[in-house]
Each structure stands twice: as C-alpha cells, then as structure tokens.
C-alpha cells in the first residue's frame, strides 16, 4: 500500500509543498511564458522513457539528458529552483518526479489550461540511459509511427494532437 499515489501524500511531511511550487512556477512563467510548453515537453520526455520518475533530470555521461533526443529540452533550471526552495522547508522529502509532474500542471494552468488534481508519492528514478531516450519522437516521424508510439504508452490520437 505504501507505493500507491495519494492526494494527501505531503500534507503532514511538507504542507507548504504546493504553495511553494505554485509560487515558483508563477515567477518563472511570468519571466518567460515559453517555459510552460518546455516543462510539458520535459515531462513528456521523462514519462516516455522509464515512466514519470524524473530520470530525465539526472545529468551524467550517458544519461537520458545527454541523448540527442533531449538536446533541445528546457526547463531544468525551473525544477532545480523549486527543489532548492523545497529543500529549505522540507529537506529530503519531496521527490523530483512529483515536482516535475506538479510544475507541468501549474505551468499549464498559468497559460489558461485546465487544472487537474495530481496525486503524489512518485519515487525518483536512479537509472537514466541515453539510448533509451532515443525512442522519444523528435518530430521527423510519420503519422503511423507517432500513433504507434502513443498507443504503446497508453495514449490515443487525441493525446497525440494535444501534445503536438
């Protein structure tokens, strides 16, 4: 049961998590609104490889972040800033995977998109392999390949259109 996601996951251990995250996302998007789309893309790349485990944030030789498919990703500094602020208030408590997921939601809302409740409790991945990131679409694929990729991730054609 401890591995299940929960809407109240940080209520006792880091009650200010969402307010800190929301404030930071607002500050960043106010400076550069294009970061909202960048965070969505960063989250998509993260979730497409090993699940939503923040493994895209790991930065070492041979990591997903160093892959050709990841070269144009942006928004790492937003997540780092949020994590640094959260560490001041709730050290070693909030996962980067939850930060990336919630920051993506809040960035979407900042630009007028829908709000959705995010359950928390994701664990950060410890494995990040560049070769695995090369399977993420880079925009050169034909429609058949894109549909097959999205379907392999449990997504549909509407998801493809919305995320394209």
Index terms:
single chain, 164 residues, mainly alpha, globular
What this model shows, in words?
This protein is mainly α and 164 residues long. Helix content is 49%, strand content 0%. The protein is built from seven helices and no strands. It is globular, with a radius of gyration of 16 Å.
- Would you identify the regions where 5 or more consecutive residues have pLDDT less than 50? none
Structural class, from secondary structure content?
mainly alpha
Mean pLDDT over the full residue set = 94
Shape descriptor: globular
Helix content: 40-55%
The percentage of residues in β strands lies in under 5%
Report on the biggest sheet. Answer: none
